[in-house]
Write a structure and sequence with these properties.
The complex is a heterodimer of chains A (337) and B (273). In chain A, α1 packs across α2. Among the domains of chain A are: 5-144, Rossmann fold; 262-336, no CATH class. The two termini of chain A are 38 Å apart. In chain A, the strands form three sheets. In chain A, strands 2-1-3-4 form a four-stranded parallel beta sheet, sandwiched between helices. In chain A, strands 6-5-7-8 form a four-stranded parallel beta sheet, sandwiched between helices. A three-stranded parallel beta sheet of chain A has the order 10-9-11. Chain A has 13 helices and eleven strands. Chain A is globular and about 70 Å long. Helix content of chain A is 45%, strand content 13%. Chain B has 273 residues and is an alpha/beta fold. Chain B has a single domain (3-272), classed as Rossmann fold. Chain B is 40% helix and 16% strand. In chain B, strands 3-4-2-5-1-6-7-8 form an eight-stranded mixed beta sheet, sandwiched between helices. In chain B, α1 (15-28) packs across α9, α5 runs antiparallel to α10 and α6 (191-201) packs antiparallel against α10 (260-272). The N and C termini of chain B lie far apart (45 Å). The chains are: A alpha/beta (337), B alpha/beta (273). At the A-B interface, α3 of A face α2 and α4 of B.
C-alpha cells in the first residue's frame, strides 16, 4: 500500500502503536513541537473514545544548536530521564529533523542498560505517512517477541488504536473466535504491558487488522513460523469465510460455527428488511473493497440512484456481522429521519 | 560602496591561502577588510591571525547562547587590521554544518558585523547544501570567484559551483554573479591556457594566474600570508595584482556550466597536446 501524504506523519502512526503499551515510555527524538502536536492529537482522540489516559511521550527537545552540532547528546539525556521513571521499555521514534542531520540513534540507544530500548526509525515525514509509522512500530516492537510452541490461540496484529470502534471490533472478533472455541492470546498492540509482547510468536495464528499490514504478517511468519489471515472479517460472506479460514488454520472445524453465524446473519437481514428495494446513493472512500458493497446491494436489492437517499459507508468499514448490524441500524435511522 | 566577494572551489585547492592573501593585499591598499571563514574546519583566517585558531561563532553560540554574544566575541583583528570571523560548526560526521553557516549569518546580521569596504567569504569546497550557498544568497556576496587549477577534478568542482550561481542568479532577488576564475596553478603544462579556455567557455574570464611557488608553504610554516612574509616576492605581487583586479573588476557574468563531456574533452585536448 502506498501511503498518502495526506494521511499525516509516521510519528502519529507509530505513536498510535507504542503509546498502547501501558508501561512503556515513547521518546520522540525531535523538536518539542512533534511531541506537543502528537500528544494533543492522541489525547483528543482518546478523549473522544471516552478514555482519559495520557500518552507517555517525552521529547529530546532538539533546537537549532542540536541541529548544527548533532542531537545525540540530547537524546542521551532524555533517555537517562526516561530511565528514572523505571519504564518497562523505552521506544525511540525519530523525527524528520533527526533523520535529516543523520544522528546515530541506534548507537546511542545501544548504550542504555537496564530496560529494553527499541529504536523505531520513523524519520518523521521522511519515512512516509501514518501507515508506514504503524508498520515500522509493529516491526520494531516484534523484536521483543520470544516465540514458543504454537498453543492453539491467536494473536491480533495491528488493531487500529485510534478508531472509534476499536473495542467493538475486538469484541466481535473475540465472539467469532469463541464460536470456534479459540481464544485471543495477545493483542499486538493494544492496551498491553511490555512483558506481554514476549508472547508474540507463540500463537498458532496471527490475524492482521487489515491487508496493508501484510509485510508485518510476512515478517512474523518468517521469524516465528506463525501463519496469518490478512484481515479482520468484512461483510456477511467475508465473516463466514473468516470462520472457515480460522477453523482450517487451527483444525478446529468450523461447520457448526458457520451455521450458527449464518442464522444470526439471516436474523439481521430480516431485522433490516425495511431497507429492501430502496433507492440509495452510497458515499464511500476510494479504497472500499468492491465485494463488500456489491454484497449489500444484492442482499437488500438496493437501487443505486444519483438522487437516492444518501447513505455513508464508514471508513474503516465495519468488522464482522455485528459491525454490519450497527451500520445497518444507522442506515435505518437515516431512512426514518 | 561595500564590495562582497566569495571564493569557492574544490577542497584543498588553496581557497584559504588565496583569500588570506587577497585580504592582506586589500588591507595594504588602505581598505577595511572583513574575512569570514565559512567552513567547519575554521582555518580560513589562521594565517592572518599568525597561526591562531580564533573562537568560532558557533562555538560561542553553543557555550553562551546567541543572545549573550557581542562583536568582540567573534570578530578578531589580524594582520594589516583585517577583521577575521570563523563560522565554525560541528565535529566531522555529526549534525548539520550547512545549518551552522545559516545560523552564523543570522548572528552576524544581528550583531551588525557585516560591514567593511570589502567582505571576503571563504567557503567550503563544494556547495553540498543550501547552507553553503548562503554567502551567495540574500544579497551577501554579489561576486563569486572560482579558485581552480588545471586538474580535471578541480575544474569539475568549479563547473558545479557555476550551476549554483546560475540557479541563484535566476531568482528575482538574486544578485549573485560570477566575477571570474582564479587559476591557482599546480604547474601542469599549458595550465594557464587551459583554465583561461575553461573560463571563456563558461562565459567568464581568467582574472589572475597564481603560479605555484614554494614561498607559499614557507610563509604558512611561518604562520603568515605571503604578503606579510615576503612582500617583495613575485608571489606577493601576483596576489596584489589579483586583489587589484578584483577591486577594479566590473565584469559580472551569469555562467553557462559545461556538460561533463565538454569538460572532459577540454581537459583531454590540453593533456593530449
Amino acid at each position: 500500500m502506498i501511503s498518502s501524504r495526506t494521511e499525516g506523519c509516521t510519528l502519529t502512526g507509530a505513536l498510535s502503536v507504542t503509546t498502547s503499551v501501558q508501561d512503556a515510555i515513547t521518546v520522540i527524538h525531535g523538536p518539542d513541537g512533534c511531541a506537543h502536536h502528537n500528544f494533543s492529537l492522541l489525547h483528543a482522540l482518546h478523549f473522544d473514545n471516552d478514555q482519559l489516559n495520557l500518552p507517555s511521550i517525552l521529547s529530546s527537545s532538539l533546537k537549532e544548536q542540536e541541529i548544527i552540532f548533532g542531537g545525540e547528546f540530547a537524546l542521551e539525556e532524555t533517555l537517562s530521564g526516561a530511565m528514572g521513571e523505571s519504564p518497562g521499555a523505552i521506544f525511540v521514534l525519530t523525527s524528520c529533523v533527526a533523520a535529516a542531520i543523520g544522528d546515530d540513534v541506534r548507537a546511542v540507544c545501544n548504550e542504555i542498560r537496564g530496560c529494553p530500548v527499541v529504536v523505531i526509525p520513523t524519520g518523521g515525514f521522511l519515512g512516509g505517512g501514518f501507515s508506514d509509522g504503524v508498520r515500522s512500530a509493529l516491526i520494531a516492537l516484534s523484536e521483543l517477541g520470544k516465540g514458543g510452541d504454537p498453543n492453539g490461540t491467536v494473536t491480533l496484529v495491528g488493531e487500529k488504536n485510534l478508531e472509534y470502534e476499536a473495542e467493538a471490533n475486538y469484541r466481535e472478533v473475540q465472539r467469532l473466535l469463541g464460536l470456534l472455541g479459540v481464544k485471543v492470546r495477545l493483542r499486538f498492540v493494544r492496551n498491553i504491558a511490555v512483558s506481554e509482547i514476549a508472547q508474540l510468536g507463540s500463537s498458532s495464528l496471527n490475524i492482521l487488522r487489515e491487508e496493508s499490514l501484510a509485510d508485518v504478517g510476512d515478517l512474523l511468519k518468517d521469524r516465528f513460523g506463525t501463519p496469518y489471515l490478512p484481515s479482520f472479517p468484512l461483510g456477511f460472506e467475508g465473516t463466514l469465510t473468516f470462520l472457515s479460514q480460522v477453523g482450517d488454520a487451527l483444525n478446529t472445524g468450523s461447520d457448526r460455527a458457520i451455521s450458527m453465524e449464518l442464522e444470526r446473519q439471516k436474523g439481521i437481514i430480516d431485522q433490516f428488511s425495511e431497507l429492501r428495494g430502496r433507492a440509495v446513493n452510497i458515499c464511500h472512500s476510494d479504497h472500499m473493497p468492491a465485494p463488500f458493497l456489491s454484497e449489500l446491494l444484492e442482499l437488500f436489492d438496493l437501487q443505486v440512484k444519483e438522487r437516492g437517499q444518501i447513505l455513508t459507508l464508514p471508513d474503516p468499514i465495519p468488522v464482522g456481522t455485528s459491525g454490519l448490524s450497527r451500520m445497518l441500524s444507522r442506515w435505518q435511522r437515516v431512512l426514518h429521519a | 560602496m561595500m564590495k562582497q566577494i566569495a571564493l569557492y572551489g574544490k577542497g584543498g585547492i588553496g581557497k584559504s591561502t588565496t583569500s588570506t592573501n587577497i585580504s592582506a593585499a586589500l588591507s595594504g591598499m588602505g581598505l577595511d577588510v572583513l574575512q569570514i571563514g565559512c567552513d567547519p574546519k575554521r582555518d580560513s583566517t589562521r594565517m592572518l591571525m599568525h597561526g591562531r585558531l580564533i573562537p568560532t561563532v558557533m562555538d560561542q553560540v553553543r557555550e553562551r547562547g546567541d543572545k549573550a554574544i557581542t562583536q568582540e566575541d567573534v570578530v578578531f583583528t589580524g594582520y594589516g587590521g583585517v577583521r577575521c570571523v570563523e563560522a565554525g560548526g560541528p565535529e566531522p560526521g555529526v549534525g548539520c554544518a550547512g545549518r551552522g553557516i545559516i545560523a552564523t549569518f543570522q548572528v552576524l546580521e544581528r550583531l551588525g558585523a557585516l560591514h567593511a569596504d570589502v567582505v571576503v567569504y571563504d567557503v567550503l569546497g563544494d556547495v553540498v547544501c543550501g547552507g553553503f550557498a548562503m554567502p551567495m544568497r540574500e544579497g551577501y556576496a554579489q561576486e563569486v570567484y572560482l579558485v581552480t587549477s588545471g586538474e580535471l577534478m578541480s575544474l569539475y568542482a568549479a563547473n558545479n559551483i557555476c550551476k549554483a550561481i546560475r540557479r541563484l542568479s535566476g531568482r528575482s532577488r538574486g544578485q549573485c554573479r560570477l566575477g571570474g576564475v582564479i587559476c591557482n596553478a599546480k604547474n601542469l603544462p599549458d595550465e594557464k591556457q587551459l583554465v583561461a579556455t575553461f573560463a571563456e567557455r563558461i562565459g567568464s574570464t581568467l582574472i589572475q594566474f597564481i603560479p605555484r611557488d614554494p614561498v607559499v608553504q614557507r610563509a604558512e610554516l611561518n604562520r603568515m600570508t605571503v604578503i606579510e612574509y615576503l612582500p617583495g616576492s613575485d608571489q606577493a605581487e601576483a596576489y596584489r595584482l589579483l586583489a587589484r583586479n578584483i577591486i577594479e573588476n566590473r565584469r559580472l557574468d551569469i555562467p553557462e556550466p559545461l556538460e561533463i563531456a565538454e569538460l572532459e574533452n577540454l581537459a583531454y585536448d590540453f593533456i593530449a597536446d
